[in-house]
Every structure is written in C-alpha cells, then in structure tokens.
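Final report, closing paragraph on structural work. Over the funding period we assembled a curated collection of sequence-structure pairs, and we close with a single example.
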Amino acid sequence: MELITAVLSYPHSNNLGDPIQKIAAEQWIGTKKIESIDREELHIYKGPKVKLLMNGWFMENPSHWPPSSQIIPFFISFHLNPSAENKLLSDIGVAYLKAHEPIGCRDIYTKTRLENKGIQAYYSSCLTLTLNRSAFVSPETIRQGILVISPFERLMANGSLYENQKKSFLQQLIEIVKRPLKQKRYHEAMNHLKDYLMQLAEQVTWESQLIDKKQTTEFERKKAAEKQLKAIAKASLLITSRIHSALPAVAFGTPVLFLSDGLEHPNQKSRFEGMESLFPILKASELNQWIGKENQNSSTLVNYLEQFEREKKNFLKIR
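Its predicted structure, as stored:
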C-alpha cells in the first residue's frame, strides 16, 4: 500500500509566509492528493503512516518534538531556530535527526548547528524558490509598480517575529523597556525608505504579510497568500523585510531589496544566513546607493532548482 503524502499546515498562524511555504510544498510535490498535518502537533499524530515534507521554521512548541512514529519525515529547507534549539537538539532530538539524515537546511546557521552535533546536513535553501510564476500570472503579464511588503515590522510594538508565541513576563518587560528605541529606529528607517521611493517614478503599493487570524479562516489566509504571491509576480520591484516575500520574488524573477533593520537578534538573523547570494540585504540608510542601479536577482537560482529536482525524486521514491 502506497504511503500517504503530506505537507505541514499552520492553522493558528497569522503570518502569510506560512501558507506561502505550504503552497510551495504542494506545488513542488505536484501530486493531486496531499494531506496536511499541523506543524505543532506532529508528536500526537495517530493517523495512517505518511511521508511528510518537513520544510520551514521549527518550532513554536519545541516540547512537541520529535514527531510521531507514524510520520516518515523528509527534511528539506529545514530551519532550526535558536529559540527552539535546546529542545530540538536534545539527545532524543539529535537521535531523531540522525535517523533521517541528511537534513536539507534552509540556511547556513541550521546546517552548521546540525553538523556540530554530528548530523549530516547540507544547504538546500528554501522550497519557495521553486514557486512557478505562471501559476499566478500569465506569461504575458507586464511588470508594473513597486511593491513594499512588511518593512521593519519587527521594530514595531506589535510586529514581533514570533507573533504566535506566548511570552514570559520578563520577555514582555524587556519589550516595554526597548519600545522607545525601537520606535525611533522604525521611524528613521521608514523615512529613509520613503525618501528612496520618492526618487523612483513608479507607483508604490504597500502590503503586510501579517493577517488577523481571529478574523480569518485558514482557507481565507491561504487565499490571501495566493493573492500576495500574485502581486509579487506582477511587481517591477519588491522591497521587504520578510523572507517569504523575498524568496518567492526570486523564484518569479522579480527584483528584490531586502531591508534588515530590526533583524539583528540571532533568532532573526539566523534565518537568512546564506540568502545574501540570492538578493541584496541592506539597511534602509543604504537605499540611496541603489538609485539608478539595475537591480537583478542572483543567477545562482538555477543551481538550487536543479538540486530541488533531484530531491523531489528522492521524496517521491519513499514507499
């Protein structure tokens, strides 16, 4: 009997980057029947045995690791976040990862941390690089306008990277103390961005990658993610501080400027180690250096796509 094919789902996420990763996983697999399993409940899965694509950010509840024995994981584009590292790399966690090596890692940080634990790992980059522009717009679509998605949100009071995580009293207190400085930095960075945009003779559209999960269903959030991908595919330039806006843009051939203001903490910076080969990563204060420059994404994309194609064959072979 053939194994069920599954991808991760994010029913409680308010970040469109999560359904974007799910859309990429489904497109990459390409088969008609694909099940979904909540990333945060892999440990209690009791359904039929499945082969599960394990891509993305791990995880909000690291005590829920490792997954159920009913899951056969295929690790690619895996990110081990420092906030969850101690639990995911416990003795049990390391043994689990070693049992399913090699681990394809979304970033250099994850690759290094796993290798330090004796786990075979390689840099795969992110599965969202395999997104197909023609799935969202017609080949004849002319690129128009500058799209700005979620710049500097982590400098805003309500723009935490881990929007779904519960925070301790101490964490909340630290955030309150840091808030005035973050707000100052936010306004300075936004002024640099607006000054840059004023010098470009194109229409500018502003969007957020965050969405109110209390006011939307999981289905509606997926539709919103598809709509945002379509906007990225139509833009002549994307400016963002969100990885899962920037990487789909690379896949679509949309030029990207990635603004790193507010991403200095290891929990954040670890996520884009290695991505500097795909698009420029800069501070808002450096934007003026890009006036008049022809911004092109890296030509190394084809290397990642070839690697993903090889890995897809390995995934589909699992029986």
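The chain is about 35% helix and 15% strand. Residues 155 and 185 are 7 Å apart (CA to CA). We thank the funder for supporting this effort.
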